[in-house]
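Fold it.
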Amino acid sequence: MRSRIVFSLFIAFTGFAISVCGDEPPLKDAYLQASEKKSDPGKEPAKRDPTVPSKKLDEILNPPKAVGSTGKAISPALPKVALKGRVIGPNRGPAAILEVDGQLKMVNEGAEISADSGLTIRVIEVNRQRIRVEVMQLKQVMTLP
């Protein structure tokens, strides 16, 4: 008979193989040893949220705004727009007469006007109740009664 008898006990749910012998340390299962080499539990890779844009895309979508001497962001001022009249007839589509930065313009739905401040105004809707215009660069809609 041998002087040393080695017994191994495999525990399936822990993945360890324990070897009982005088001065041998317990052995881990080969699968667990390989998986520990691949991923260190202290250094798990950070999972990236796919719905959050990357830094480069975020800079493109939200460009940094100019900052004035007060430290606040400078945004272009809305142009002065006033409704001067509506032209609604049976033979033509509805139109409106707008005063934009002191200049009179006759516009239909879908017309685009350039203001003195460099902003573009697009006419969204012209009817008897209201005229809706959008300042395209600022993405703001104004309703003129």
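The two ends are 106 Å apart (CA to CA).
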